[in-house]
Amino acid sequence: MRLCEIAIVGLGLMGSSALHSLVRRGADVLGFDPITVGEARGSSHGSCRVYRRFNFESAAYTDLSDAAFKRWRMLESASGRTILMPSRVLEAGPPGSKMVADSRAAARLKGDIAGAATGTEANAAFPAFRLPEEWDVVVQESGGILLAEAAIRAFREGAEQRIVAATARMRPTAAGIRITTPHEEVLAEKVIVAAGPWIAGLVPRLARHLKITRQPVGWFAPARPEWVRYGEFPIFIVEGARGLVYGFPDFEGRGVKAAQHDHGPVVDADAWEPPATDDELDVVGTTLADLLPGAAGPIVDRDICLYTNTLAADLRKDDGNEFIIDRLPHDPRIIVASPCSGHGAKFASAIGAMVADMALDPKVLAPEAFRLDRYSHPLAGRTGGLL
């Protein structure tokens, strides 16, 4: 049986970031994940994610965004790869939009006016848009396109010999946490669980606080390709009549990637098939046609993303869609670094470093907002399951 100081179960953005941090600090660490980079499964698959400095979900995220930004730049410098491509982020909604107001408020707390505008002004600046004139708009200059798979590859460079490409079960014992794969057993002093939608299978008592939703993604052949090029067209989040739709400039030559941010149907962790249907992408296509006609067009590619979302807490003000980053109360040798409720990728460089700190130093605590003590239901019980 192999021994190690720290095991990481799940090597998407969060787990690979933690692996990178621990290897750099000389820790004896092994990572487990059956999914290869580029495979169309897992919360971190696909080429890109949105980086926003100011987050309508909570102004408290700004400091975490800033810490993550610095670490993304450090990763770029160390790896020689492009990880974060600068891009403006345009958020728009009807007059009084809470999303726009909350983003604006988060920016003001840092002394940033964040480009307040109207629909008329946004349409003039970005001709692909056709927003109602009276709409509220905010434009962040300090956003970016996070190249997710490139980031994972950069995090793993130099750590390839520490990665076990296999499913993993874990079982706490008095001697340590026993990690079992189809080929071997490993005994770890501590475990970081960063398994995205599979986390409930590894920590079953967590399941009652989570829901996994199916989020269809489409690439659309734009009506006006010259209007949606990277550098000229922003990342966008628009509050249409049927919900929030976000998307990217055509930076890959594949078309405009867009998806609905509102939660889709509740599914299990293996619901990656079938591919997104035309009906599932109807809200996205209709929203583009109504509000961004220059970006609208036929679907040329499609994918599925899964959000692993937290439910509302009962012991602190928390409406759900937050993060869980904490030690398990009944076994602090196990650190949970998931879920991220569909908006955690941009923070992965900082969160990975955070959970690495927690694994190395028992005095380090996660931010209060992310801790499990916001829920009254105890998590005591056996831990086990399949990644």
UniProtKB/TrEMBL annotation:
Cofactor section: FAD
Entries under NCBIfam families matching the protein: PRK11259.1
Record-linked Gene3D superfamilies: D-Amino Acid Oxidase, subunit A, domain 2, FAD/NAD(P)-binding domain
Enzyme Commission identifier(s): 1.5.3.2
A Pfam family: DAO
InterPro entries: FAD-dep_OxRdtase, FAD/NAD-bd_sf, MTOX
GO molecular function annotation: flavin adenine dinucleotide binding; N-methyl-L-amino-acid oxidase activity; sarcosine oxidase activity
Assigned keywords, A-Z: FAD, Flavoprotein, Oxidoreductase, Plasmid
Name listed for the protein in its UniProt record: N-methyl-L-tryptophan oxidase
